[in-house]
């Protein structure tokens, strides 16, 4: 009967909620452990100059190696944000990226700039800007080699605070990119008030190419007017690439070129001191 069915559904719902809550609690607990046990690692995805095909930098993307399995940041970054543990995790990402830059400089006598993602809650933290400066200094990394990626949504959460922090970072010489641009439902015109160097077109709009280029064209035009570098994220096909080149998009990343790679693989593929990357290297 209906009553029994309803109570069965409720029992099922309760069971699911309990399962979900306990999985989440477990994840929270093991995230604390993960830092101590050094279970995080960075993958690197190349960023290319679309015209020449040269690698001009990379994005660091975190992975969690837990019991031999790689866990995606999409699964644990939101939990880390809710519990606050994103602050030390985010700090680890920045420090590790500084170490890698330094390592590349020593090994190859040049370095590629690395872009790191900063979570909303991490960006709101008062110690972020001094931390970034201090870590770069400690590891002797030129600020120009470190780019901070912040999503449009995090910026809009507290735009006044964001402007002040970005100004500090920019004055110190760090690159600043607005990530996942176009998904935040904010007006395009506020961009002119932000001290940023780069805007990354969200992968969803690159995915619309070449059939529907309305949003990508608008962002590219805006970038030209405001003199910003525009990076296309998530390029998967030759057709998307051709469209972007035709519309003067200078920089891109995506599976079409390369997935994010473990550091050793990234180095083997892109860090050989070959002559074709000479003009893009940053000398030290
Ligand atoms: P994001 O910063 O927008 O990074 C781009 C994501 O798109 C990466 O996923 C990358 O692997 C994926 N991607 C790149 N090219 C393509 C493509 O051609 N096709 C498709 N389908 N996907 C592509 P990933 O590594 O899983 O990271 C997901 C998100 O997790 C990132 O989005 C970022 O928001 C967050 N994240 C990653 N690492 C960190 C980190 O160290 N700190 C923080 N706070 N967030 C991070
Ligand atoms: Mg990013
Ligand atoms: Mg993105
Ligand atoms: Mg994203």
UniProtKB/TrEMBL annotation:
<feature type="domain" description="EAL">
    <location>
        <begin position="24"/>
        <end position="274"/>
    </location>
</feature>
<protein>
    <submittedName>
        <fullName>EAL domain-containing protein</fullName>
    </submittedName>
</protein>
